[in-house]
Amino acid sequence: MRFWLLFARAYRGAPSLAAILLLTVLNAVVGAHEVRAGISEPVTIPYALLIPAVMACVVGLSCYADVSHMDRAGTRRVPLARLLLLLALLAPAAVGLLLLTPGSQSPEALGQGEWAAFRNLLGLTGVVALSVTVFGQEASWVPATVLTGAALFLGRQGTGAGAWAWISAPQNDADAFCVAAVLFVCGTSLLVFHGERGLARRVLRY
What we know:
By secondary structure, the protein is mostly helical.
């Protein structure tokens, strides 16, 4: 029990969970409001699709390296502890997005709603988790923020749009959901087994 408490404290589990719950409430309050964005293709995006990006960044910023000595010691409980911490943060976020995301009344919102918010939470969490294993928790928010900005301001047109278009795709877009699921599985798996900057250390070692 002492190990789990020390791990949760080192990874700032309680403040991160509090931030997730606060964002869930904020989504329920302002999720129906929209922001108009886009350069090549103007799109009206509900704030409910921006909040998952912030949630994903909170998950990444919770991945401190204060227990990196446990990784080096080969403690088998550390990957399990990281997985449980991720699930503890993602479970209320996912349930809150699915149950409390208000429906958008604008026909320009492109069919996005609670399932699009859930999809973005999965995909962007995967991006953030992968970033943690390479850049560390301090810079883990950068790639997800850049991707979200590209989806909002560049739209779904132009070369390379597929790399970010899934974020602003309609929620019934199966391809976008598959992309998000793959990113989530790959990113979180690497984070669980390698930890903060673990992938970078492993690559540089070779």
